[in-house]
Amino acid sequence: MATDASFSVLTGNDVETRSVKAGDVIFREGQPANELFVIRSGQVRIQVGNRAIAELSTHNIFGEMALIDSEPRSATAIAITDVELVPISEKQFLFLVSQTPYFALKVMRTLAQRLRVMNKGFA
After folding, report:
1. SS3 per residue for the chain
2. Global pTM value
3. Each residue's pLDDT tens digit in the chain (123 positions)?
């Protein structure tokens, strides 16, 4: 993922984090969602059914779609390694979008990049 899409600013020392052990499910496809995650450390696999669609590492976000459209999770997220995550609530997300236009643009760029990857997979 491009450096431009890094969300490292959200992973500072004074933020709440959540630890997940390697192999554990972070969330499952179809579950309701009320937060997105920034990877502070480790690697996460995103999969739909049994098909891996992305492997993400430090300073990437995932789970953002559900906050944008209020739909259930569209994929399952599994910790590949031990992972430290920064959860971003819907309230925090809306604040970031309203106060930091560049944050919103970075989220849109991330979504666009992922959509392009998915489209190539179906070409």
Report:
1. CCHHHCCHHHHCCCCCCEEECCCCEEECCCCCCCEEEEEEECCEEEEECCEEEEEECCCCEECHHHHHHCCCCCCEEEECCCEEEEEEEHHHHHHHHHHCHHHHHHHHHHHHHHHHHHHHHCC
2. 0.85
3. 333 456 766 766 677 899 999 999 999 999 999 999 999 999 999 999 998 989 999 999 999 988 888 899 999 999 999 999 999 998 888 888 888 888 889 999 998 988 888 788 765
